[in-house]
């Protein structure tokens, strides 16, 4: 008898090909998913070295090409949808209960207190987030007015010190500075509620949006442009940031910081910015800055936020670069825009000041609605 062996299973090349195609499709997805749950490495030292290599001359270079603005001293680090998703999937809850719960105190009845102010006093009031109210030589200045409950999506955690219905108390000349078009700095409803006599000073590309919301005069300024306003001088200066808004293309409008020189008082309003060579240059060109209003918010995680936002250490360094007399932190305590809680930047700043033994009197940390008299010294 002849025993016949069992025939081998036939080989189907098509099945192998499909398996390879399946693996080539799934494997990148698995690898991508693992990356999304792992934050990328970030070196503070390398970042500082990169900033140190920036050339101050680039602050004066062309910064618009094909209808879009850019930072000529350092290309913007684009963060696409995958980067945003990676940030959201790797958020870490590493904050203590006090850090999670701390918020600034609100001093009430600001409108009534403003109405009772003695004439001729220069003041500064923190309204909330990047919104400050200043009176300089009899004129009101309002920065990045944001009095609404939401910045598109993020909800306020603290009430603004001045309500929309109370802005009528600002009955003298009212000059409004807007640093860029992000929703936490340019709020449509707040602008619509401002008094009819308000005048707006904005970076290039924002004029039409403001004119669609308010009938007041709108002046567009490019970096380094100067404008005389009510006997004061307003200077538009660079910042390291970007712009975007629904229905508006990315970086089709400019972002900026501003300097106000009014009488004997010089105020620098930093808008929104990361740390860059501009602070050293501003300190060189404007050697008499009194008050530096610098942003300290949304800086965690550092791998994602280091380019457009200052952390506490960088804000202190920027203050030193500017050579200003008094530091005033802005943008903390209102919205949670980064990983860190809204009140964390204030506690972080307090720790830095204490650890370095910095002079407390030079670091002004007002509460919401607190009236600071600028003509009384720091």
Automatic annotation (TrEMBL):
Domain (Metallo-beta-lactamase) ranges: 140-330
GO cellular component: cytoplasm
Domain of life, source organism: Bacteria
Protein's name in the database: L-ascorbate metabolism protein UlaG, beta-lactamase superfamily
GO MF assignments: N-acylphosphatidylethanolamine-specific phospholipase D activity; zinc ion binding
InterPro entries: Metallo-B-lactamas, NAPE-PLD, RibonucZ/Hydroxyglut_hydro
